[in-house]
Amino acid sequence: MTNGEVSDLMYEVFVLALKLAAPMLVISMLIGLLISIFQAATQIHEQTITFLPKLLVIALILVFTGSNMLVMLQDFTNKIFQLMAAL
C-alpha cells in the first residue's frame, strides 16, 4: 500500500467513526442541555438526574439505528479485507 492509500483509508475510518458516534453524541448533548436548563430554572442541582435520560435515549438510538451501524461496519470490514487480499 502506498502512503496515499493508507491516508485515504484513515480518512474513511475517521468519517465512519463520525457517522457511527455523531447521532448518539449530539442527541446526548442536547438532552444534557435541556436537563441543565431545567435544573437551572428549578434550582435542582443534582448531577445524577442527567444520567438516566441520556442512557435511555442512547439505548433507543442503538435499538433503532443499530442495524444500520452494523451494516456500515460490515461494509467497511469487507472493504479492508478486499484491499488486503489484493496485496
**Distance separating the two termini:** 8 Å
Q: Into which percent range does the helicity of residues fall?
A: over 70%
What is the tally of beta strands?
0
Determine the number of helices (DSSP H or I, runs of at least 4 residues).
2
* Radius of gyration from CA coordinates: 19 Å
Account of the 3D structure:
It is elongated and about 60 Å long. It has one domain (3-86). It has helices at residues 3-42, 51-86. With 87 residues, the protein is an all-alpha fold. It contains two helices and no strands.
Core attributes:
single chain; 87 residues; mainly alpha; 2 helices
Question: How are the SSEs ordered, and which strands pair?
Answer:
Blueprint: H1 3-42, H2 51-86
Short description:
This protein is mainly α. The chain contains two helices and no strands.
